[in-house]
Amino acid sequence: MPVIARVMKFTAIIVAAGSGSRMGSDVPKQFQMLGGKEVLVHAIDALLPHPAIEAVHVVIAADQERMAKAVLGDKSVKLVIGGETRSQSVRNGLAAVETSHVLIHDAARPFCPGTVIDRLVSAMETHDAATPMLRSVDTLAQPHGALLGDGVDRETVIRIQTPQAFRTNVIRDAYEGHDGAPTDEARVAAAAGIDVALVQGDEMLDKITTPGDFARAEALAGQTMIPRTGMGFDVHQFAGEGPVMLGGIAVPHDKGLSGHSDADVLLHAITDALLGAVSLGDIGLHFPPSDPTWKGADSEKFLAHAAKLVRDMGAVIDSVDATLICEAPKVGPHRAAMQQNIARILDLVPDRVSVKATTTERLGFTGRGEGIACQAVVNVRMK
Ligand code: CTP
Ligand code: MG
Fold first, then answer.
1. Are 218 and 34 in contact (CB under 8 A)?
2. 220-278, pLDDT tens digit by residue?
3. Domain end (from 166, 191, 223)
4. How far apart are alpha carbons 299 and 322 in whole angstroms?
């Protein structure tokens, strides 16, 4: 008799309905960009391709629906509305599951190695529940107020991670008899008397809770990305009356700059550098001067669009450096405002943006005061 392997099919529930209060940021951590894509998208992309996973349910808060839809685009996941606590969010997710088995995972753990899912699936051949765990390498102890209390034998404790695997009806039944708001389901199952198999977890699965965790996760995500540099150059001729637009700031000057748009030579050079960093052509290709749409246009639109194109390719913008080349107007008094404004448009912290200026010692067209030139360099990281 041939042995017919029973294939277990899992629904992955990814809980993403939290507010991330300990991160202290405006946008909840699961919707923040981490190494080119949102934390939640990392979590989904780590689970969705696994052959044992048939469906992915993402549990979000009611007021996050619009943000989630924008972030998830046409990813084949089902959105479920969560609850006040993590465990209520899980309960809501469980109610929508149709498969015999389920994996329950935190969106705040963006990097899930496929090997951990393999271990969970194989543990589920013989158990109704399984969780990844790590042993502590640090010495452990209890605090006694602000002083050191008794030691805890580190061999007696383990760290519990997600995703956790369950037979769907087993975890549903376990939750039925459970009140309170546990922080994971393995605990719920164990409390209901179910044997929970332990499999080896992975430090890649550490949860993002604080800004420090986020920085560590960024470093991990960045390890697999390659730095790329883009350069941009632009010139506009003086004509008519001032002011001149430089970096989105109206700088008083007796002459203006001529151009099809608002002739912001600084924003144009940075736009070209951004496009160059990801090999997406140049500003003329994306915003043809022949197109009347761009007549007199605010160059902020060009820069913001280029930044979006770069990020849509999964790239992270690291830094911008630009040099304005002119005898006048004096850039120094406006430099900080330009830096702040460019950082705002690019959604960067201001110290990642540098604006410099030089003259050409009265030589050449800039030296004769015929126009302004600008060079820019942009650094990005990309897979
Ligand atoms: N979660 C959820 N529903 C809630 C609370 C939390 O789906 N009502 C999710 C979070 O989005 C996260 C996971 O549960 O993916 C783990 O929770 P935690 O790290 O505590 O996230 P937050 O609750 O968002 O953060 P904080 O506790 O700092 O507010
Ligand atoms: Mg929480």
1. yes
2. 887 778 899 999 999 999 999 999 999 999 999 999 999 989 999 999 999 999 999 99
3. 223
4. 16
Dihedral, 245, 248, 252, 258 alpha carbons, nearest 10: 10
Residue 258, ligand 1, Cβ within 6 A = no
207 lines ligand 1 (CB under 6 A): yes
Same domain (yes/no): 64, 146: yes
Same domain, 272 and 352: yes
- 8 Å CB contact between 152 and 159: no
User: Is 353 near ligand 1, meaning CB less than 6 Å away?
Assistant: no
- The closest of 53, 62, 54 to 16, measured between CA atoms, is 62
Could you list the residue range(s) of the whole structural domain that residue 129 is in?
3-223
- Choosing from 203, 223, 243, the residue where a domain stops is 223
User: Are 37 and 142 contained in the same domain?
Assistant: yes
Asked if 118 and 18 sit in the same domain, the reply is yes
52 and 134 in a common domain: yes
19 CA: nearest ligand 1 atom: 24
Per the structure, the count of domains in the chain is 2
What's the mean per-residue pLDDT of the chain?
94
**Per-residue CA distances from 71 to 101, 198, 219, 308, 381 (Å):** 27, 34, 22, 13, 20
- Candidates 67, 86, 89: which one to mutate for ligand 1, based on the most atoms within 8 Å of Cβ? 86
Return the closest-CA partner of residue 346 out of 297, 380, 374, 382: 380
Burial 266-296 (b: 16+ CB within 10 A, else e): bbbbbbbbbbbbbebebbeebbeeeeeebee
> Looking at the structure, do residues 181 and 33 belong to the same domain, yes or no?
yes
CATH of the domain at 268: 3.30.1330.50
Q: What is the pLDDT of residues 340-382, one digit of tens each?
A: 999 999 999 999 999 999 999 999 999 999 999 999 999 999 8
